[in-house]
């Protein structure tokens, strides 16, 4: 069965994209241009009615939602040990992943796509401004989680090696730059992200997606 990953450059799909590269999986990366609305095309919606990336297909099976895709790739490539096996390590991994996916990520959606939440343009500006403040605090919290991991002797957020939580951290910090947040405001997190970017499998995805690590432009 052929694995296909539908991804958009710089989007949250970066996380499973790096996992597939780290696992040395044979897969077809399919680029979707969100700015051109390719995720809302009839063909794409017929495949995945939620109209978002990432989507992983394995033969006839269509899997959406980062959390489910991460769990699937982990189970398919057990030798990559993406998710810790011990009960507490596993719970801590899912705890951070869930928080990234259900709290930090949607906060950025309010900044990047405020039109999803209201048609009122003035309200969109207010939503955006308010969420930039929240996002700044969440990045500081993420830096705190990294410090905690390091204090516990872990070099990576994901555990003993670079993994999905580290790729998600890179994505979230990069998005901070789009929101006008200087990565230097969270220097330990920024240093970590630069280290994540040098992991060969991650570097290959950065190249394929043609990403700049920071999009921050001083005002
Ligand atoms: N809850 C979804 C969120 C996916 C998501 O927000 N994807 C974004 C890119 S980062 C997207 O496709 N946005 C386009 C849209 O929602 O119209 C998941 O975990 O996979």
Note the topology.
Elements: E1 3-7, H1 14-23, E2 27-31, H2 42-47, E3 55-58, E4 61-64, H3 66-76, H4 87-112, H5 121-151, H6 164-178, H7 187-198, H8 200-208
Parallel strand pairs: 1-2
Antiparallel strand pairs: 1-3, 3-4
Task: Describe the fold and architecture.
The chain has 219 residues and is α+β, with helices and mostly antiparallel strands. It has two domains: 78 residues, Glutaredoxin; 122 residues, Glutathione S-transferase Yfyf (Class Pi), Chain A, domain 2. It is globular. The relative contact order is 0.13. Bound molecules: glutathione. The site of glutathione has 12 residues, from helix 4.
Gist?
With 219 residues, the chain is α+β, with helices and mostly antiparallel strands. The chain has eight helices and four strands, in the order βαβαββαααααα.
Question: Which key phrases capture this entry?
Answer:
219 residues; Glutaredoxin; 55% helix; globular; binds glutathione
* Subunit organisation of the chains: single chain
Radius of gyration: 17 Å
Largest sheet: 4 strands, mixed
Bound molecule kinds, no repeats: glutathione
Distance between the termini: 49 Å
